[in-house]
Amino acid sequence: MPHAFEFKNLVKTYPDFKLGPLNLDLTPGLVLGFVGPNGSGKSTTMHCLVGLVRADSGSMEIFGRENDLNKPAWKFDIGYVGDIHVFYENWSGEKNLQFLAQFYPSWSHEFAAKLAKRLDLPLQKKAKELSTGNRAKLAIIAALAHAPKLLILDEPTAGLDPVARAEFQDVLFELMADGERAIFYSTHILPEISRLADELAFLQSGQIVLRTAKDELTEKWRKITFRFSRNDLQFESVVSQQHEGNDYQVISSDFEVTMRQLHELGVENVQHSRLSVDEIAVQILKGEKNVAALESRA
Amino acid sequence: MWRLLKAELRYRKLFFIGWLFLVMLLMLMVVGRSDPGKYHSLAVMIFGVWISLNFFWDEKRIRLYTLLPIPAAKLGLARVLKWHLVHFSAILFFSSQLLLKHDMAQNLESWRLLTLSSVTLILFVSLPFFYHDITHGGIKSYRDLTRALIIVCEILVFVLWFFLAHGHVDGHRITAWLLSPKELPIFPILNVLFVPVLFHASVIIFTRRQSYLK
């Protein structure tokens, strides 16, 4: 079965920024959270994937088909919610959806109407009269109504109220139930992605610094506290280390390795606790240690 | 492509109908006149202003269209064609008026002058497309040079058109010679040659854009 998408050596260069070379893929049935600070290249990656920006080099495939702009059959398989929502501003939401529907044989007017109701979107209003949140809702409906196999979501809930955000998450869960779709979800609102994602890829300055299963991440990363008389310790798998006198607090990317080392050193009264995805992401993206090295270990 | 064109015409119907009405009115006024140049000038100027006002506004929707399952070449063609539909309709309307209601021989100069203006309009519309496609995410190293060249070309196109449409040599209008029934119908021929070449060039440059974000 082909990947939902696959990049090989994707490179895009701007005068002040270079993305890649990126190698990334996604298996159908999974949700990949794409996490990174502002300006790390998340949107550029997605723009390249959907054909809004031409990559300098590398290949991109969607369900085994190259994302060639002159052979756009691959676009039937994708639904994209971007960072900017463009519509016919003087047309109502409904008329905008009708316009889009004519290009997709699989478009479901019924699904679109139901989703608009769930998200509390007034479809009769002109696009230009919609609030930022309602524009996002319209973009979400436009991306989902043709039942795409791959959803590419670039900060899709930006501007949504908490109720609509939760509703949208529920819709995504429902869509994933058949196990055939995939979602590539970019965000910096981590609690959102920590509920939905199966895997996480962390992007920093145009490079993927870590790609791992979410469960593995939350299982391995721990905060460890202990007392020890030496202050020249170097621990394996530790990404952050603080000590005040003999009191140590470290964050380990593989707590079993760190615990083993502490045990060998004869350290006692060791306590460890789990970290949230949010806390782990902060540690990874802060780059307190050379996180690139983590990729090989994870 | 036709669905896209249809949507665009529906969305901007007031502008298109308004423009078409105005152009046709101007052209009807040209029929039978010995010096139709000023009406053509007015039509070309209005078209120029109309394009300038709407071009960049409408370009925003390229981002929306690029996401649709339409080949980029068809998208590029629909984009150029949209601007010329009104213009071609006007020529068709004018030609039919000449054929049906007026003496073709008497109005041949008007018709040929119209085709001269048509070449100007095609150039005038195509150049901003080239400019936009090359400078927005296009070939970076030639951006400034392209901008300068295109501005110069736009000015030259208008100066040349104005000179041909209104100029006098030895007290005779240039159009009287250039558009004489005895001479080769240069401008209709140019029209026929220009349309496919410029459309093709527009499409090629559009499909090679580096970015469709703006």
Helix content of chain A: 25-40%
CATH first level of the largest domain in chain A: Alpha Beta
State which percent range the strand residues of chain B make up. under 5%
- Work out the number of β strands of chain B: 2
Helical segment tally of chain B?
9
Shape of chain B: globular
Report on this model:
- The complex is a heterodimer of chains A (298) and B (214).
- With 298 residues, chain A is an alpha/beta fold.
- Chain A has two domains: 5-205, P-loop containing nucleotide triphosphate hydrolases (Rossmann fold, 3-Layer(aba) Sandwich), CATH 3.40.50.300; 216-297, Malonyl-CoA ACP transacylase, ACP-binding (Alpha-Beta Plaits), CATH 3.30.70.250.
- Helices cover 32% and strands 28% of the residues of chain A.
- Chain A has ten helices and 14 strands.
- Chain A has helices at residues 42-50, 93-101, 109-118, 132-144, 162-176, 190-196, 214-220, 255-264, 277-286, 292-297; strands spanning 5-14, 17-26, 31-35, 57-62, 65-66, 78-81, 150-154, 182-187, 199-204, 207-213, 222-227, 238-244, 247-252, 271-274.
- In chain A, strand 12 and strand 13 (247-252) form a beta hairpin.
- Chain A is elongated, with a radius of gyration of 22 Å.
- The two termini of chain A are 25 Å apart.
- Residues 288-298 of chain A have low confidence and may be disordered.
- Chain B is mainly α and 214 residues long.
- Chain B is built from nine helices and two strands, in the order H-H-H-H-H-H-H-E-E-H-H.
- A two-stranded antiparallel ribbon of chain B has the order 1-2.
- In chain B, a hairpin with a 2-residue loop joins strand 1 (168-169) and strand 2 (172-173).
- In chain B, helix 2 packs parallel to helix 5 (72-101) and helix 3 (37-59) packs parallel to helix 6 (108-135).
- In chain B, 32% of the residues are buried.
- Chains A and B meet through loops of A and helix 1 and helix 4 of B.
